[in-house]
Every structure is written in structure tokens, then in C-alpha cells.
Amino acid sequence: MIGLPDFASGVPRVKNETPQAAWAALAPLLAGQPRVRLSKDAGKSYPQKNERNLTEALPSFPAAVRIFGKDGTCAAIFLDFDSSVAGADRVQADVRAAQTWLHSVGARWIEDYSPNGGRHIYVPLAQRVTFSEARDLVEALGTRYRTLDKTPHQNLLHGCMRTPGSPHKRGGHQELAMSLSMAYDVARRPNSAAVWAAMTADLAAEIKAVRALRLEQAYTASTAPSPAPPQPAGRMSRAMQRIALTGLYDANRYATDSDARQAVIVGAAAAGLELVDVERRMLQGTWPGLASFYARYAARHRLPALRRDWVNALSYLNKNPAGRDGKNNARRSHTSAPLTQPPVLQADPALANPDAEHRFIRTWRNALRTRETGYQESRSGMARRMVLRSMGEAAHMTASRFIEFGVRSIAVATGLDQTTVAVHLKALRSERDPLVTLVEEGRGTKGDLYMLTIPEELKATAEDLSWRRGKIHALRPVFRELGLPAAFVYEALEHSPGLSTAELVRLTRLSRTAVGEALEVMAAWNMVARNSARAWSVVASTSLTDLAEHFGVLEAVAAQVQRYRRDRIIWREWLSRNVHTVTELLSPGEDYPWEAFEGPPDEWGLADLAFGRLAGRLAM
After folding, report:
1. Would you say 610 and 477 are in contact if contact means Cβ atoms under 8 Å apart?
2. CA distance 329 to 88
3. Helical (H) or strand (E) element with 53
4. pLDDT tens per residue, range 114-152
């Protein structure tokens, strides 16, 4: 290991105090879990899709380690003093005051500084502390020090920070303000539980104040969604899933972490989940918020505590059967397959031969594969390819080449805004020899009617090509986070495993750089792997469902659907006041099926949005 302190003689000595040495020595010891996020936009953001395994190799981009582990606990307190708040002089004053306080409670710390004048203090802990405990302490310190940025410790899923040695967005690196030998000694001999107790005791008044402030603040959508109306049993509510995911809850509703965790357990039991399902989500890091509520126990006692809570939850539900009848907002069955895309109406079998229609649609897909060579790698080109895929998927669902739904349903299926979808549809139908034709514009509550078309110039080629096995997918939820290039590369590997990078470039019509970055991102999440022959394949054991749930990306889907649902309600109200000749509005049986065409209602659970099919249409 290059540049690590040498303890052979019993006294730490530094071989080579380079950024590489500082990173290799300290990052693994400070991180809450062995994961790091890279910033490829000059330090502006550290997106989840750029997360990698933490190694000793120094990243070439600004890199921030994850603060919290899969169990919702942290191994160190990260104090980030930001020079953009009040200047470098105020940062230095706050750092000196914080160091004086740390010394007074017997704590040891590591300090580094940024090229822009910001400073970091790391307080390693021998006994990991929970998300709630760490947040309380950092928010309490924030009342003392103006330049202290509290946000890294306020987000269980995305809290991260650059550690010594990391590249900086302005050039240079995070530089230690002490010798590497001394910093390594602090990291290897972290602060004891007694020091942590002294820190919290000294901040008791401030901690009490920040907790009281949370009680006074409104629990807005920025921390959790507003309560959803009652819905059929079988779907766990978004509010409960948010608590399990983030560890954040309404302090006015749940007085303690224990109350919040019991609410989640009751919700999971009412949803039809088994105890093993909850254990798996906690151990695999899918529900780090729930795991953090059990971190107060020793590791060997956490699962027994969960089992006790599970027994209590079942006892409560048996005594209160109403809890299973629409008030726990759970899925109908935890084994039911979840939804990838918004469902559409089934076609009337009398109108077409389904087998003949599916054959036509598969031939149309061949035409789409041929035409895609003409779409550029630009953002708009990739978006149009995805819009066409969504229409092909909808056609298979309805067993008809005729598709009637609005731009909002395509927006949900592709991850685009509805106005962007409208622009792309107009461009697609305006092409010479288009693949989709507008048959009839939408009227009242009816959506536009489109028809899949095979251009004459492509008909012979499309009919000669073999049909591609498998389904055609619009943008599956996980790729909202990973990006369109990753979706196209993954699709190619699904259909043709064992491809080289060069072959993927040819099949996807993307640049080598885009394909390489997509493979790098997906390999980091174990979605694809390369064999000894340097050929890539999909890792079948990695579930796109679990990753989508892990990313929390479906919250964005739910917010989009909720916004579109409000838009549609406003439109229907306007029609009812201003249009008196639209017969569809006068006949409930012919009313516009919002839940079928415009995506699921916002109270659907996240798992329903991620996978499966509807058992039936829901009432508005």
C-alpha cells in the first residue's frame, strides 16, 4: 500500500505524504461503508449513479466517501466548514472554536483544508452511532458555528464528503493540516464511547433545542410526502417506505425512533411482507433508515429485536383487523409482480387478430432497429428512440398497432417532461416515412390516436430480419438514475450477451465514450460483468427492482405522476364548465380512464410503480 504509515517500529512514520497516501490510509477508516461517489461535473454534484467501491487507488475526479453504512450508522463525525458562507477568515475562527471544544471533551480529530479555504474536521468513533444521534449532534454544533454545513449528516442515503487526498474541483487536493502519521494514529485509535457521551452531554441544551425546532416545523414534502388517502390493502404506503429508506419521520406523529420503527413494521406486516423480507431489506441496505433504528442494540441483538417488533405488529393487526383494510396502504401481495410502466387499456379482440398484430409489431420493431442508425447520439436523438420504444411497448400491451393515450403517459414511461414528449412526437410524425402516424388528434378527455407504421423503404428489410426475442422496454425506472446510454447498453446485452465494447458501440449506435461510461457505471452496481475474454454480459442475479428501490428513484416517478394527475383533474373540471357537447363526459362508462392511460395514482406504493401488472382498474 503506497504511502501508508509504517508501524514496524511501534512509532508511526510517514513514507510518502502524497494525496494518494492520504487517501489510501484514511478514506477506508473514515467511510461509513466502502463506497465512494465521484463528481464528473467539476464538483457540482455527487450523483448516486457515479458511486463505486472504495479502493486505495486515488480517483481522478473529486471523490466523496459515504458517511453512513447500510445499517444506518456512521464511523466518524464529518464537520464541513464552508468558506462560501462567510469567508475563509470566519471558517478559521469557527474551526479554532470547534477544536477548542473538542479538546475540552477529550476528543481527538483529523483536520484537512480545501484549496478554496474550506476546512474539514473528522472525529473518528470507536463505537458507531446512529443516523439520528449523529444528526442531532451536528445540528447542535451548527447553532454554535455559522459556517458549519449540516447537510452531510442530514441525509442518510446521500450524505457524503471528500476526505484527505481527494481531488478538488478547483484543482489540487484535500490537504492534511497535520502529519499523515498523526492523522492515521487518530483514525486507528478512534474516540471511545466515553468521549461521545461527553460530547453529547456538553451539547445537551443545543440538542434539545434542535429537536424542539423539528417539532415546530411543518413536515413538508421535502422530507416526506403528505399522507395519502386510504387505499386498498396490499400496498405499503409511500410514507412508511420513506421512513424505512431515509430514517426521517414526522416528530409530531412519532415521539421516538422506536415509535417510528414500529409503525414501519406494522405497515410491512399489513402489506403482506414476511419477516424474512424485512430482514433482507435491512441487511442488504435497501432500508437503511429502518436499520438505523435498531443500531442502538449490539449487532447480535438487532435481529431478535426486529423479531419481537414483528410479533407485536402481528398481534396488533390481529386485534385491529381494520389495519389490514385500507389504512396501512400496503400492496395486495408482496409476491405479485410490480409494474414497469403505466398500463394501458386492453384492445377489444373483435377489432383485430391479436396474433397478427403482435407479428406486425415485431416487424415494426425490426424497422425501428434499422431506422435508429439515423438518430444521432444527442440527448434529443436518444430521447426519440426511447419515445418510440414506449409506443412499441404500449402496442404490445394492447395487442394493437393503434395507440391512444396522452403525452403524460409517455412522459411517465420515458422519464421525460410532457412538453418534451410533445416536441419529440411532433418531430417523429413529421419525418419523411415516419414510424408513427397521427390518425386523430385528442378530443376532450380522449388522447391522441397514433398508429405504428412501417415505411415502404424499410418494409423489405424489416420483414427479412429475424424477430428479436424478448420484450421491448421503455425507460425502466432504474435508468432514470443511470441514464439513457446505460438503458440502451443494458438492452443490447439482454438480447445478445457476451459482447465486446466495440460490438456494443456498433449495436447501440452510441459513441465509444458513452458506452464505456455506461459499462463503468453498471459494473459498479454489479449489473454487468466482463469475463476473461473481455466480453460483457448482464448479471442475472442483480435485480433492477432492488436497485430502483435502493436508489429511491421512484419518488421522482411518484411526484411526476401526482403532478400530472392534478393537471388532468384541472383539465376535466375546465371541460365540464366550458364544453357541453362532449358526450364522453356525460357517460360514466365512457369517461377517460385516467388510471389506465396517465399512470398510477400518486398513492400507489413504490413497489407497484417499479414492477408488475394491475390486477384490475382502480377507481379514481
Report:
1. yes
2. 50
3. strand 51-53
4. 888 889 999 999 999 999 899 999 999 998 998 999 989
